[in-house]
Predict the structure.
Amino acid sequence: MSSTGDFRVTLLGTGTPAPRPDRFGPSTLVEAGDQKLLIDAGRGATIRLHQLGVPLGGIDALLLTHYHSDHTVGIPDLWLTGWLQSHYAHRTAPFRVIGPAGAKALMSHLVKAYALDIKIRIEDEKLSPTAAAIDVQEFPNDGLVYAKDGRQGHRLRSRPRRRH
Amino acid sequence: MTASSDFTVTLLGAGVPAPVPDVFGLGTLIEAGGRRLQIDPGRGTTIRLNRLRVPMGTIDVLLFTHYLSDHTVGIPDLRLCENGVASRRDAINRALAAAARQSIAGRMIGERCST
């Protein structure tokens, strides 16, 4: 990382919904201080993180901008590959998700959808249920989205969209 | 498609859970008798189908082998990515409704699956 105060933004994917091998779905990595935030998880986001050498478990939070599928179809992969105890994953804390209204519904349905995977991996691979758990927060239309206070603190706020 | 008695099996992905760019997640396409069966959608299955010029709307049935995540993380993409083919959604809805109402995909799609 660079000096304190800098942050780095990496576009992991800027594609459209078309399933192309050369352009993955929307996903952006923001590295600031010791924090790594992923904004949206489109198709292929895990592959791009792996290519960057960023373990999936090293993502502090997934921020969702909105709920179009091309921004969200990568969530199951990021979440459920991320808690595997391999060098490319290795999340030990709950999967943190922050989004506008709707994040709780989305994630609670995914928890039900993938319950069997989680159950099997806890039984067979002795993975920690804590790392499969989800910590989800919804942010207001005009307010604080994410805060990491301290010496290398960062804050993210949302603002209402201006209508023309 | 080939002669009526032939069938074609295409491995769309044969990877492990590691998110590597050159080997996608589990996914197998079987074409037989003018029908297309997709077995497991892993990471990247939609990309491989698109590469093969197989419109997702022409997949008749989606079959699940089991529910480990590397065999299923491609479900939302296969189900939701817009491909401009109206029949795709109908075909997958049929598969989900018939085979997976209480399973992972059934829960994911919820009530829309049963219509």
User: Anything to note?
Assistant: Residues 18 and 34 of chain B are 34 Å apart (CA to CA). The beta strands of chain B are 7-13, 27-32, 35-39, 61-63. The longest strand of chain B covers residues 7-13.
